[in-house]
# Entry
Amino acid sequence: MRFARFLAPIAVFLGLAAPAMAQAISPIGNWQSAKGDARFVVDQCESGRGLCATLVWLREDVRNPARLASVGTHVVEGAQATGPNRWRGTVNYAGHTLSGSVTLVSPNEMRVSGCMLLIFCETMELVRM
# Structure
């Protein structure tokens, strides 16, 4: 019995627990880049189909015309669940539309990745606010 109590937290950490347990984490909410230079709101898309993430704020020192044009727009659009704590959809990055993914690493950490032609990839780490 003591052995099972010891293994249960490890199984959850490694993603070996039941999918229903892993699915309990929700990406809905307010997030900030790990560097603190951008903030996003993640919610259901207006269409009700998938997740969307909207860029809502940029720190003063990273603002430029291209980035400012992205404020108020979806940087992730229509992401559909592909497994526990994983979604795939469209990522809009630096004027490019990429195939991307959203992964909840933990309840307060999220990774957004996008690739163009599977060669040029970018990953952004986010923390819950």
Q: What stands out?
A: The two ends are 38 Å apart (CA to CA).
